[in-house]
Write a structure and sequence with these properties.
With about 475 residues, the protein is an alpha/beta fold. It has helices spanning about 20-25, 70-75, 105-120, 135-150, 165-170, 195-200, 215-220, 220-230, 250-255, 310-320, 330-335, 365-375, 400-410, 425-430, 445-455, 475-479, and strands at about 20, 30, 40, 45, 55-60, 80-85, 100-105, 125-130, 155, 180-185, 205-210, 240-245, 260-265, 275-285, 285-290, 300-305, 345-350, 355-360, 385-390, 415-420, 440-445, 460-465. The radius of gyration is 25 Å and the shape is globular.
């Protein structure tokens, strides 16, 4: 190998993240040449386009790219060391002199580095969250409650849409000594993804929000969904708490997965759950709920910024998740009252007298129906436009699911105008009767739907945008 220039030579850092010895220990990898085992890196980088100074560049291989093809770019970006797959060693042969560690699988190595780092913080309490719907909402409610208890600087929560195989270790590597609690969101759309993420997160509390029709193209059916989601308990500490709905499809799968763990169930007022939340009423800007805590005969009520019966259940899940951490009622109330959701999740805006509800982050049959039922509480159908986009990854269940949603919208909000966007919606429309379709317009994509919609809008109207991320309904607001 050629000698690396002194400009990018390895320097000792005050906030070193891993020594070279720790990297080998965590990943089970082998350094291809002798390295100073007390030297190390202060970050792990997976994108060669970023500054890699004083960092370990870890080369991930995906379906559409292979970072092993960009090792020279990482070196040019001043990487301190490289982590590569053993079968790609040849791609590092002509690089300037730089420490290289070879591992069986760089993705697994990345995850193990995250786990190694997390284990450094013995007092840190971790809550892991998964489910078919409400993962991010529940995560954000938990975050808000924990921040009310410990302070914002002492709480870390999954950022953005980083809940997958790459995102979870990325989040674990952000943990610091100052953190008292962390909330790690774990997502999946294929079998075998939740378990390794639970194992590296080692949660003190593991939460399932719901089991419903989501990612059925790959998970098969509700039993497949429940089986995969229940793997959240694989890494739960022996003394940890399993939190799940008192009633949900395929409950026997969840009960089997939680055998041997302490359990805390959540549900509505009529249920036998330990933590109950009753949805009292709501409107466009918030709602009132009653909270029943274990051991207390009377509930307490509060008004909070989120709204809809589905968000009330997310609140119940979040309260149950935080209770094992000895969170007080004051923090629960403060956390719920101050909670806000990120991204395109029911973002409300007004343009030229028209109220827009942007809920285009994601969609499933359950979440779509929940929003429709919520709107029925207060919206006037004659002034309401429902822009409903395709719900992706439903596989053989797609036609039935889209047909049922359109039928539900017609039944629950009769007289509203419906813009159905996407090929699955178009196919579902062919099953509807001529009379049923009179209030529905069908479009193959968002931009054309937006042009037609905006031509019909008048002050005082309300527009809901709801569809899977891939349909990009947010383009309608820009069209």
């Amino acid at each position: 190998m050629k000698k690396k220039s002194s400009k990018s030579s390895i320097k000792m850092r005050k906030e070193m993240l891993f020594t070279f010895k720790e990297i080998a220990e965590a990943t089970g990898g082998e350094w291809l040449a002798d390295v100073g085992l007390t030297a190390g890196v202060d970050a792990v980088v997976t994108d060669s386009r970023k500054d890699c100074s004083h960092s370990l560049f870890l080369a991930l291989a995906g379906e559409n790219f292979d970072a092993h093809d960009f090792l020279d770019t990482a070196v040019a970006q001043n990487a301190a060391a490289l982590c590569i797959n053993r079968d790609a060693i040849g791609k590092a042969a002509d690089l300037p002199e730089i420490p290289v560690i070879a591992v069986d699988d760089t993705l697994s190595a990345y995850q193990q580095l995250g786990a190694f780092h997390k284990r450094r913080f013995s007092r840190l309490k971790t809550i892991a969250v998964t489910g078919s719907m409400g993962k991010t909402s529940t995560k954000e409610i938990i975050r808000s409650i924990l921040e009310a208890q410990f302070g914002s600087d002492a709480v870390y929560a999954t950022g953005g849409n980083t809940n997958n195989q790459i995102g979870v270790p990325l989040n674990l590597l952000q943990l610091k000594k100052q953190h008292r609690a962390s909330v790690i969101e774990i997502g999946t759309n294929h079998h075998g993804e939740v378990e390794p993420l639970s194992l590296i997160s080692e949660p003190d509390v593991a939460v399932i929000t719901t089991i419903s029709a989501c990612h059925l193209e790959f998970l098969g059916d509700l039993a497949g969904v429940a089986t995969e989601k229940a793997k959240i308990f694989a890494g739960l500490k022996k003394e940890g708490m399993a939190v799940f709905p008192v009633s949900t499809p395929e409950m026997e799968i969840i009960q089997q997965a939680t055998t041997g763990f302490a359990q805390l169930r959540f549900g509505n007022r009529a249920s036998e759950a330990e933590v109950k939340v009753e949805y009292l009423n709501g409107n466009l800007h918030g709602s009132e709920i009653a909270v029943y805590l274990p051991g207390e005969t009377e509930p307490f009520t509060l008004t909070w910024p989120l709204t809809g019966a589905h968000q009330a259940m997310n609140a119940a899940a979040a309260i149950a998740a935080t209770m094992p951490l000895n969170i007080g009622k004051t923090a629960i109330v403060e956390g719920l009252t101050n909670c806000n959701l990120p991204g395109m999740r029911m973002k409300i805006s007004e343009v030229n007298g028209v109220t827009w509800l942007n809920d285009t982050y994601n969609a499933s049959p359950g979440s779509m129906l929940a929003v429709i039922e919520w709107l029925a509480e207060f919206a006037e159908p004659k002034n309401l436009c429902l822009v409903l986009g395709d719900m992706l990854e439903l596989g053989r269940h797609s036609a039935t699911a889209h047909h049922d949603i359109l039928k539900s919208a017609l039944t629950v909000l009769p007289g509203s105008t419906i813009f159905a966007v996407g090929q699955a919606m178009i196919k579902a429309g062919k099953i509807l009767s001529t009379d049923e379709k009179k209030n529905i317009s069908f479009y193959s994509e968002a931009v054309s739907a937006g042009r037609e919609l905006k031509a019909q809008l008048k002050p005082g109207m309300m527009v809901l945008l709801k569809g899977s991320r891939g349909i990009q309904l947010e383009k309608i607001m820009k069209s």
